[in-house]
Design a protein that fits this description.
With about 270 residues, the protein is α/β, with parallel strands linked by helices. The chain has two domains: about 70 residues, Orthogonal Bundle (434 Repressor (Amino-terminal Domain)); about 180 residues, Endonuclease, Chain A. The protein is built from twelve helices and six strands. A six-stranded mixed β-sheet has the order 3-2-1-4-5-6, with helices on both faces. α1 packs antiparallel against α5 and α7 packs across α8.
Length: about 270
C-alpha cells in the first residue's frame, strides 16, 4: 500500500485535501501523469501532494476545480490548508496581514518575507528544517503568503532595511543577486517605499529588533515583533504607538527612497 492510501483524512486539513484530490482525480479517470502535465509540474511532485507530503498551490487547486468540475471546492480547501500551514503563533499575523491597508516594516538581517524569492527563502529557512518535505512546505507557504501583494486592494508597503539585510548573501552570490533584483523591482512600483540605513549611520532607533506594524480598516492596529523562537503580535495602544514612532525615526535616519534604490543597485553590482 502506498503512502497516499495510508493517509488518515481526519488527521489534518492537508491529509483531507490530499485524499479528496486523489479520489476526485481517479473518479474522473485522469492519470497522475496527465494531471501533472496540465499543472506544469512533475508527476513526482503531484505524488507528494497526493501523499500529504507537499502543500498544494493555488494554481493546482483552481485547475482541479476546472478539470473535475467541482466549482470552487478545491480552491476553498486550499485556503483552509494554507491557514494551517503556518506555526500556530504566526497564523494570527498572517490573517491580519491579509487585511492590512498599510504595512510598515523594519528588517535588520533578512529581507521581508513578502519580498523573498524562492531560492532566498529556501536558504533562509533551511538551517532550522533538516527534513526536505518540511522545508519545501515552509517555502511554499511563504511564497503563497506573498499573494497579499497581488490583490486588487494590496496594502502599501513601507520598508526600512538595515544595510546588513542587503549585504548578507543568503544562499550565495547568485541567489542574492536575484533577490536584490526583486527588491529593486518592488522599490520602483507605486505601492512600495524601500529605504536603507547604511552602516556609516552608526546606531539606529529600535536597536536590533525587526518588527512590522499593520494598519487595519477595522479593529486596532497591531505590531509584530520577531523573537528568538517565536514572534508575537501586540495590539496594546502603547506598544503600537512606540512602534509607529520608531518606524518614523528609522525613515528619517535612512537614505531617501531614490538614494536607497541607488544604494541597493550598487550592492547588486558588487555581487
Amino acid at each position: 500500500m502506498g503512502a497516499a492510501e495510508e493517509l488518515d483524512p481526519s488527521e489534518s486539513v492537508l491529509f483531507y485535501y490530499a485524499t479528496e484530490f486523489r479520489a476526485a482525480r481517479r473518479l474522473h479517470g485522469v492519470s497522475q501523469r496527465e494531471m501533472a502535465r496540465q499543472a506544469y509540474i512533475s508527476p513526482s511532485l503531484l505524488n507528494k501532494v497526493e501523499s500529504g507530503r507537499r502543500l498544494p498551490t493555488e494554481d493546482l487547486s483552481q485547475l482541479a476545480d476546472h478539470v473535475f468540475g467541482t466549482g470552487d471546492r478545491f480552491h476553498r480547501l486550499w485556503h483552509l490548508v494554507m491557514r494551517y500551514a503556518y506555526p500556530t503563533w504566526f497564523q494570527p499575523y498572517v490573517d491580519l496581514e491579509g487585511a492590512a491597508t498599510v504595512i510598515r516594516s523594519f528588517q535588520t538581517v533578512l529581507l521581508p518575507g513578502l519580498f523573498q524569492t524562492e531560492r532566498y527563502a529556501r536558504a533562509v529557512l533551511a538551517p532550522g528544517r533538516p527534513d526536505s518535505n518540511e522545508l519545501d512546505n515552509s517555502v511554499t507557504a511563504r511564497l503563497e503568503r506573498q499573494g497579499v501583494l497581488a490583490k486588487k486592494n494590496a496594502p502599501e508597503f513601507r520598508c526600512v532595511l538595515d544595510e546588513s539585510a542587503i549585504r548578507r548573501p543568503w544562499g550565495g552570490k547568485e541567489v542574492m543577486r536575484e533577490q536584490l533584483e526583486r527588491v529593486i523591482e518592488f522599490a520602483q512600483t507605486p505601492h512600495f517605499v524601500v529605504q536603507v540605513i547604511p552602516f556609516e549611520g552608526g546606531g539606529r532607533p529600535g536597536g536590533d529588533t525587526s518588527f512590522s506594524t499593520l494598519s487595519l480598516d477595522e479593529g486596532p492596529d497591531v505590531v509584530y515583533v520577531d523573537g528568538f523562537l517565536a514572534g508575537q503580535v501586540l495590539a496594546e495602544p502603547e506598544h503600537v504607538a512606540v512602534a509607529y514612532r520608531t518606524h518614523e525615526l528609522l525613515m528619517a535616519e535612512a537614505l531617501s527612497p531614490a538614494r536607497s534604490l541607488d544604494f541597493i543597485a550598487s550592492a547588486l553590482r558588487a555581487l
